[in-house]
Specification:
Dna Topoisomerase Vi A Subunit, Chain: A, domain 2, elongated, 8 helices, alpha/beta, two-stranded antiparallel ribbon, 5-stranded mixed sheet
């Protein structure tokens, strides 16, 4: 395989949930396309990489200082939904089960991968509780060891008796990831969340 093509395949294969075979198909498809799609994709990606960043309040990806969810005052209902990454916000928004504020951690605690609390967007949760009058924190984290560890760590850092904690109810399987859960299951899990 040509060195440039091989290098491009390796870059695509580093994307989440993209293997070498899928990366190869994408690269070849883009390179064989005569409509200018590859150049358009490259320019759009470069523009997004320069302008998209985490919201200064919640961590949702945006091109403004504050994201659309933080700017929407109708969402200030005392609920804060803590998620692992931005794709989880998109899943929840698509399902329509949550209408409060979000907090994107940017990952989960992991001793194996060396991810510590300092690597995640955890520190300003306590500040948000005070400034936004948060009364319930809903954890919509993966049902994994890392997700549960992250959840327990966050709970241990919050010393506010006026805040209750809940997590998604059963329906989200052990080891489950929000990206793979259908809307019906997610609606049941969110509606049947339980106190921690």
């Amino acid at each position: 395989m040509n060195i440039k093509i091989e290098k491009l395949v390796k870059q695509f294969a580093k994307l989440p949930r993209v293997g070498t075979r899928a990366a190869t198909r994408m690269v070849i498809g883009l390179l064989q396309d005569k409509t200018g799609r590859a150049e358009s994709l490259a320019n759009t990606l470069l523009d997004a990489a320069k302008s998209i960043h985490p919201c200064s309040v919640c961590g949702v990806l945006t091109d403004a200082d504050m994201c659309e969810y933080c700017c929407d005052t109708s969402r200030r209902n005392g609920q804060l939904c803590v998620v692992r990454d931005f794709s989880d916000v998109l899943v929840l928004e698509k399902s329509g089960v949550f209408h409060g504020c979000y907090h994107v951690l940017g990952g989960s605690l992991s001793g194996v991968d060396g991810i510590t609390p300092d690597d995640l967007n955890i520190a300003n949760i306590a500040k948000r509780i005070e400034t936004e009058n948060i009364t319930e924190i809903i954890f919509a984290l993966p049902n994994t060891v890392e997700g549960k560890t992250t959840q327990q760590y966050i709970i241990s850092t919050i010393a506010n008796p006026n805040v209750s904690f809940s997590e998604l109810a059963s329906g989200v399987p052990l080891g489950g990831d929000l990206d793979y859960i259908d809307d019906g299951t997610l609606t049941l899990a969110f509606g049947g969340r339980k106190r921690i």
